[in-house]
Design the sequence.
């Protein structure tokens, strides 16, 4: 694990050193805000390849839309605790271990590409939804696969531990599509299987597919296809039964939206050239997200 002293969440300026995150134990403050105040530390979970939400930039340090929003949350934690000396540790997480590491206290918050759904709400809590996406597919350019129906008899890969894997398994059974669903450890491996011809399509949230395409050696060799199977929200994730911290995070998001800073961050990461290759995802804000900037709902997907 790495630790950042007096975090500014600017990957170009932060200094990183090794640190260990304490596990939650009996007697430890139940509120994340109380924990930060008493210990003087907070731990952020980051993804290494969830472009453009949370990923490693060209300098090998975390960056992204969610990463910057986490920085805004940390500023408010400092204000709420009076701990301007708050030290922030960072911990790499995966789709498979993000929830367990949150539950056991290894991390305190994740601002990435985690879907807010009913099943996960049984284990963790979510803030106001801050993005909406749908499961689609990435294939080699020129592939005959143009829609879900074209996947009959094909091999489809998705990253294990994601809601997309479950969505694909369900739609395959419910609609009797007839594709062979295989799992990969992360988005990079999923894409590699398609590039190597060991899978015909990679099913994942459409924005993440645009992200892995942008980071590929030759983006023109890949195409995102099909209609969204199911639209789902992303939200900042933290431990259950912590209304104080949830209010702080929700209020932070509401403040960013009201000031227009949220919208500016969206344009920066979804409609402008982003690191490491300066590719523009050209991903306009969805109607669902536009509506939720007014509603400020944390409603989960079913």
Sequence:
């Amino acid at each position: 694990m790495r630790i950042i002293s007096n975090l500014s969440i600017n990957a170009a300026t932060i200094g990183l050193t090794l640190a260990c995150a304490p596990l939650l134990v009996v007697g430890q403050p139940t509120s994340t805000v109380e924990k930060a105040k008493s210990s003087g530390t907070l731990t952020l979970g980051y993804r290494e390849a969830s472009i453009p939400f949370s990923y490693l930039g060209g300098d090998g340090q975390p960056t992204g839309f969610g990463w910057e929003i986490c920085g805004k949350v940390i500023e408010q934690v400092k204000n709420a605790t009076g701990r301007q000396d708050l030290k922030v540790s960072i911990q790499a997480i995966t789709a498979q271990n993000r929830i367990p590491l949150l539950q056991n206290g290894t991390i305190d918050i994740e601002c990435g590409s985690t879907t807010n759904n009913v099943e996960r709400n049984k284990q963790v809590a979510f803030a106001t939804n801050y993005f909406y996406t749908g499961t689609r597919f990435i294939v080699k350019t020129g592939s005959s696969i143009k829609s879900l129906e074209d996947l009959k008899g094909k091999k489809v890969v998705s990253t294990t531990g994601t809601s997309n894997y479950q969505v694909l398994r369900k739609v395959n059974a419910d609609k009797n599509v007839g594709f062979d669903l295989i799992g990969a450890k992360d988005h990079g491996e999923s894409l590699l299987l398609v590039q190597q011809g060991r899978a015909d399509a990679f099913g994942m949230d459409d924005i993440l597919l645009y992200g892995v395409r942008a980071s590929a050696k030759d983006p023109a060799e890949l195409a995102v296809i099909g209609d969204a199977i199911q639209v789902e929200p992303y939200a900042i994730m933290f431990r259950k039964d912590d209304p104080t911290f949830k209010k702080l995070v929700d209020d932070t998001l509401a403040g960013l939206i009201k000031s227009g800073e949220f919208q500016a961050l969206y344009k920066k990461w979804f409609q402008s050239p982003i690191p490491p290759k300066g590719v523009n995802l050209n991903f306009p804000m969805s109607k669902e997200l536009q509506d939720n900037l007014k509603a400020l709902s944390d409603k989960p997907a079913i």
Q: What stands out?
A: Confidence is low (pLDDT under 50) at residues 5-28. The radius of gyration is 19 Å.
